[in-house]
Design brief:
Elements (H helix, E strand, L loop, with lengths): L5 H15 L6 E3 L14 E7 L2 E6 L3 E6 L5 E6 L11 E6 L3 E6 L3 E6 L23 H9 L8 H4 L11 H11 L12 H17 L34 E5 L4 E5 L9 H8 L8 H8 L9
Antiparallel strand pairs: 1-6, 2-3, 3-4, 4-8, 5-7, 6-7, 9-10
Helix pairs in contact: 2-5, 4-5
Length: 298
């Protein structure tokens, strides 16, 4: 199953915006909704995505907030059209005269009033959305370089929506491969040049996939992805074997190439700094001196 990323949700928001904005809602249904129920007759004024968050706002400042995480998705159907998923997986449905927008399997479906947004406990401060062309990438670079936990691993920081929105598990793996950075690099070890490369690469990959359903981050590999989902296969850049391990609090699957993603890898740095020392014991020195290739040195 393809997991939702920022580009997928951005496309969903665009489709929902076209179908719903400016139109009165005939019916709203959300069996597991947390918060007040939006009332029929209200006009949809805004549909926005922020990473894996999608918000729909009505003309009375009521906001529906859905968080896709790894399982959620929004579908758009003509009224009367058969749904592609069963009713039991429906988490929210918005019906207008022509369209039905349905959210399936989203773990978080809640409503709140717009004036309370900054006090809303589930949202917090979201970082800039890399899918949007007007986003100031310099702000994202600064957020990355000023990350409060300098020891946090880069692979985990890239999923922190407070730094940047839009990068999910697929893109974090692909961005790190494209930049040659170790996923285990402490974020505090990044130079400004490293941070700029990460942000520019992530924004380029996301925006390049906004108008297509299949994600393509490289043309060097059949299928369009360099490392994600390719455990045990050869790396297109160095021919080493791609590895996978679960990482972080959410135990997400991380794919990377240990052969060429070595920049800022703390394990590689330790190995490189370790210099062999001669055993100081006299017997060891005598043994080494008696080796045939050492007898005439001096």
């Amino acid at each position: 199953m393809t997991m939702p990323e920022g580009d997928t949700i951005h496309r969903a928001a665009s489709a929902l915006r076209t179908a719903l904005a400016g139109r009165p809602m005939l019916r709203f249904d959300a069996p597991r909704l947390v918060g007040p129920v939006p009332q029929a007759g209200r006009i949809v004024e805004r549909v926005e995505s922020h990473g894996k968050h999608l918000e729909i706002e009505w003309d009375n400042a009521m906001v529906l907030h859905t968080h896709m995480r790894m399982s959620g998705s929004w579908h758009l159907y003509r009224r009367g059209e058969r749904w592609r998923k069963p009713y039991e997986q429906m988490r929210a449905a918005i019906e207008t005269e022509e369209w039905v927008a349905v959210c399936f399997n989203a773990p978080l479906v809640e409503t709140y009033r717009q004036p309370d947004r900054r006090r809303h406990p589930g949202m917090g401060r979201l970082g800039p959305d890399l899918c949007k062309p007007e986003t100031d990438l310099g702000v994202v670079v600064n957020l990355l370089l000023s990350y409060p936990d300098s020891d946090a691993r880069l692979a985990e920081v890239l999923l922190d929506q407070r730094v940047m929105c839009g990068v999910g598990n697929v893109y974090r793996c692909e961005v790190l491969w494209a930049t040659g950075l170790s996923p285990f690099a402490p974020v505090g070890s990044l130079t400004e040049r490293d941070a700029i490369r990460i942000v520019n690469t992530a924004a380029s990959q996301l925006r390049a996939n906004l108008s297509q359903a299949s994600r393509v981050t490289t043309t060097e590999v059949k299928g369009g992805l360099a490392v994600y989902g390719r455990i045990g296969q050869r790396c297109a850049r160095c021919s080493d074997s791609i590895e996978m391990r679960r990482l972080g609090e959410q135990n997400r699957m991380l794919y990377w190439c240990p052969g060429c993603q070595t920049h800022l890898d703390p394990r590689v740095d330790v190995a490189a700094d370790a210099t062999p020392t001669m055993d100081p014991h006299p017997a060891a020195q005598r043994f080494l001196a008696d080796l045939p290739w050492n007898r005439h040195v001096g």
